[in-house]
Structures are given as C-alpha cells and as structure tokens.
Automatic annotation (TrEMBL):
Family assignment from sequence similarity: Belongs to the cytidine and deoxycytidylate deaminase family.
GO molecular function: dCMP deaminase activity; zinc ion binding
Active site: residue positions: 96 (proton donor)
Alphabetical UniProt keywords: Hydrolase, Metal-binding, Zinc
Organism of derivation: Paenibacillus methanolicus
Residues reported to bind Zn(2+): 94, 120, 123
The protein, known as: dCMP deaminase
PROSITE patterns: CYT_DCMP_DEAMINASES_1, CYT_DCMP_DEAMINASES_2
Required cofactor(s): Zn(2+)
A Gene Ontology term for the protein's cellular component: cytoplasm
Domain CMP/dCMP-type deaminase: 13-162
PANTHER family for the chain: DEOXYCYTIDYLATE DEAMINASE (PTHR11086:SF18), DEOXYCYTIDYLATE DEAMINASE-RELATED (PTHR11086)
A Pfam family reported for this protein in Swiss-Prot or TrEMBL: dCMP_cyt_deam_1
InterPro entries: APOBEC/CMP_deaminase_Zn-bd, CMP_dCMP_dom, Cytidine_deaminase-like, dCMP_deaminase, dCMP_deaminase-rel, Deoxycytidylate_deaminase_dom
Length: 177
C-alpha cells in the first residue's frame, strides 16, 4: 500500500521562513532609523546572519547619535537631468556589508542572500562581486532601485522582491500598504 504525502498548510515556504529569520536578526540593530537583517543561504542551509550597526566595540547611533551626511546625485529622469538629495548615516555598517565581512567567499559562491530591505547602490555593488546568485528582499529602497535592478540584470543575479510578505509580529515591524 502506497502512502500519499500531504503538505501541511500551516508550514511556511522557504522564502517566508528565511525572510522571517532575516527580520528577527534585524531586531539586534540599534539603528534608530531602520533595522535591517540579512542572511546567507546555500540551498536550504543557513550559513550566516548579519544586521546593520556600528563597528564592534564602537559607540552606536543610540549611544552617540547618527552621523548623517548629505549627498547629491545627478540623475536622468524622463530625459532631463535632476539633482536628488540623499541623506545617510555613515556610522552604521549595512547588514549586507556585515554579512560579507563575516562569511567566507567559498560559502557565497552560488548562494542566496535574504535581506529585509532592497540593497542600496553600495551594497548592491558589493553583493554583485561576492559570488551570490540571488538576492531576495522585502522592503523597497526607491532611491537606488533602478540602478540596482539594472546592475543585477547585467550581472545575471536573480533579484526578487517578496511584496506580499508579512514580517513576524515578534520583529516589531509593521508594514503599511
């Protein structure tokens, strides 16, 4: 007699499972502006986690305040040049950067990165050169979105947004539609 396997409807799919973990990792961040978590996954094996924050042993933003800098970028919008102002904190190392610092290149080859937020331009460049084959994210980062998408297409890196995803309630994140 042959048994039939029935999938448990309460069991999460792999994308949800790993993104839930990324959001839980983000709860370690002490950044007052945004908590970001990232994971390195090879197949279904979790190889590393990281979150955004100050370098180890240095004062973080909650202790010493954010170090905000303003940058201006010349962009082409509908055929016209437009100057865009960006503000960013330079005290914080991004989650993706920490993930690359604390994982081995051999483990990154052909792996997937799950990250709570779409990578910024700098992180996208670093990830594009890291050996990963796929990046899965949840929250969009519109400031760099077009450039990042173009880079990922050029590099042949799968780049997916989990738009319908809902973070676990324990992460303290609420997503407004």
């Amino acid at each position: 007699m042959m048994e039939t396997f029935v999938q448990d409807p309460a069991r999460k799919d792999w994308d949800t499972y790993f993104m839930d973990i990324a959001y839980m990792v983000s709860t370690r961040s002490r950044c007052p502006r945004r908590h970001v978590g990232a994971l390195l996954v090879q197949g279904k094996k979790l190889l590393g986690t990281a979150y955004n924050g100050a370098p180890m042993g240095a004062a973080d933003c909650s202790e010493a305040g954010c170090m905000i800098v303003e940058e201006y970028e010349l962009m082409l919008v509908e055929g016209a040049e437009q100057v865009t102002k960006k503000q960013r904190c330079i005290r914080t190392i991004h989650a993706e950067q920490n993930l690359l610092l604390f994982t081995d290149r051999i483990d990154r080859e052909g792996s997937t990165v799950y990250v709570t937020d779409q990578p910024c331009w700098t992180c996208a460049n670093m990830l594009a050169n890291s050996g990963v084959k796929e990046i899965v994210y949840h929250r969009a980062y519109p400031k760099d979105s077009e450039k990042v998408l173009s880079l990922m297409e050029q590099k042949g890196i799968a780049f997916r947004r989990l738009a319908a995803y809902e973070p676990p309630s324990q992460s303290g994140v609420s997503v407004i539609s």
